[in-house]
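Changelog-linked ticket: iron/sulfur cluster example.
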Amino acid sequence: MIAPQALEALVGTLRGRGYRVVGPLVDQGAIVYGDLQSAEDLPKGWTDVQEAATYRLERREDEARFGYAAGPHSWKQFLFPPRIRLWRATREAEGGFAVEESEHDEAPLALIGVRACELHAIAIQDRVFLGGAYAERDYAARREGAFVVAVNCFEPGGTCFCVSMDTGPKATEGYDLALTEILDGTHRFLVEVGSKQGAEVLGELPSQSAEPADLEAAQAAIDGAAERMGRTLDTGGIRDLLASTLEHPRWDDVASRCLTCGNCTMVCPTCFCSTVEDVNDLGGEAAEQHRTWDSCFSVDHAHIHGGSIRPSGRSRYRQWLTHKFGTWQDQFGTSGCVGCGRCITWCPVGIDVTEELATLRKPEEEDDGDD
Ligand code: SF4
Ligand code: SF4
């Protein structure tokens, strides 16, 4: 067990070991992930209220440090940054070009406050970027040295459905340390160790052994979160459901609401589409190639010889949903969704994947398009 004050020692120990410590903090009217200089940066006493197309910060009546649900940021912005330089070429005096590949030389990451659904999202991106014959070099470098402090959920959001996706609310693997915040009178944290490095870091913190009452209180907090999920999703046979409803009228209905803005793909912790851009200086002396996030909602992303293969909003939304919940299973062996609810909260028109998928289950004549 550790006291809330020991979080300062946790941040200090990780910084002392050379990590760039990132975690939750309040910024721009939301709980986002950013650099932590101190445990004082954590969102002490804040929570959020989330619904479709709605996000609002509120004050809590306690001093919980992790009393909120997943916000607009995910850890992919640190492991798979929105923009990196792949290489740079410069013209040489004697003719020709020197090409320099960009190396990852940043401090290793320590991620504090990783939720169970987010651990699953990182595991999914690990399969995408590191599985198979070719590992993504930049992702591998960022991921390899990362230290992960998971935090079990006790305050699920209105758009969460990790229980349906079997990805939460308790962290089960993929962490170095896992915290459960207990607020039943004495504010304290149960700490579970998931690796040798985790044990070493815990050894540097002021801690004491957990009593049976602490374990019961931690379990009660997690069980409470599981019972208060904001959303549910029936995942039974979902891959085949999607494969057999490609002409369902609901696709037209959702296309009439969808702005094809791509917000859902930007906030989704597993979406990984990217593109490359070549950038030349005006004098012709240097050129760079950058990798940037892209989205299956952009017309250009599906541009092949002769034009885009998904020119309509209907085809782009259908591609996103059928890949995320269906063909992702063929490609990577899991669902592409971890039930974090971000795409529901941050869709500007409140399109809700749980509602769309439930409607696809109904016989076509029952879809009145109003729900
Ligand atoms: S599809 Fe939506 S709920 Fe599922 S992981 Fe992505 S953002 Fe979260
Ligand atoms: S579903 Fe919502 S967030 Fe996603 S592209 Fe359409 S309007 Fe944007």
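Closing comment: Example verified and attached. The mean pLDDT is 96. The CA atoms of residues 272 and 293 lie 7 Å apart.
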